[in-house]
Request: fold
Amino acid sequence: MKCRACGQKAVVNMRQHKLALCKDHFLEWIPEQTERFIEKYEMFTRSDKILVGVSGGKDSLSLWDILHRLGYMADGLYICLGIDEGIGYSSESQRLAEKFAVERNLKLHVVDIQKEYGSTVPEFSSKSHRGRLKSCSVCGLVKRHVMNRVTRDLGYDVILTGHNLDDEVAVLFGNTLSWAGEYLLRQGPVLPGVPGLARKAKPLFRIYEREMLAYALLSGIEYIYDECPYSVGSTSIYYKQLLNRLENDRPGAKQSFYLSFLEARKSGLFAERELIQAELHSCTSCGQPTSAQGLCSFCRMVAT
Ligand code: SF4
Ligand SMILES: [Zn+2]
Ligand SMILES: [Zn+2]
Reply:
């Protein structure tokens, strides 16, 4: 197979785009596509102060790398979750995120959950009414809270995450199976900021996971290969496998599922839910918006 741009041997074949590219052209194409989507979906501009949530994994480090190549001013945020039993997942991912930042002279903020809030993610989980909150629920709560806090307190305009198309499609698939209206309303490439809640964007949301993997490998980014131990057997991995089978038979199916969802929502499929969503209060402890009166779920968890 030959590169469409130069005729040299192609290293990546993207069947959904009917496009094969050599290493050099692929490493140019991914940042070009990312920039196109940043502009198309009005995620942020070059004058914005940008924060990238980095986990040490291939997607978030690649996103930071792409923004750096494109000339955006973006700092990183690493949240140490304290998931260290077994393979030392948190320590190793922190080491790689810090190494990445030092090598490129980029600024990385590090928030250690145990030091700041007294417990690691697994500890919060086991303390929560005998493990009522699973580690992934705690982790999601912690990450949302900290990203929002740091973005707001340090005056960033937007927080970015490295979610790729496969991540987004797996979440959409799960939300659609249960017709979770509230979640479907909120899912999208950009979440506009509201008072107390930072603007969020996902610049890689249209790029397939296998392309992000190719980008990380071909650009020599050192990232953590191991998955978080809590992801083993997760529903989202199962959905990804199912969706990959669909994609294999019908190239482009994942992308079209997601883009059709965005179109349907734009044309008013969830319009009624938008009216209901306005009911938010300020948490009496941290000030972040919450649907409950009094403390938000994060502050309730820390207080127990
Ligand atoms: S698998 Fe669960 S615990 Fe691990 S990083 Fe992801 S959300 Fe957090
Ligand atoms: Zn080429
Ligand atoms: Zn709170």
